[in-house]
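help with this record:
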Amino acid sequence: MSSKAPSANNLSQARQTVQQLRLEAKIERIKISQASADIVKYCSHHQKSDPLIAGIPASENPFKEKKPCTLL
C-alpha cells in the first residue's frame, strides 16, 4: 500500500506541471526587438514629464534645502 502513495503523488505532481506548461504555452509573446522599440517609444513620449530627466522646479521641490539659521 505504501508503494502506491508515492507514485500517486508523482502522478498528481506531473499533472500539475503539465497543466502549468499548457497555461504558459498559451501566453501571447512578442519579439524582443518589438518590446525594446515599444520601450524606447514610451520613454520618448514621457521624457518631458520625467522628473529625473527634466528636473523638479525649485518651487515644487519638497527636499529643497532650507535657509540656514541666522542665529548661529
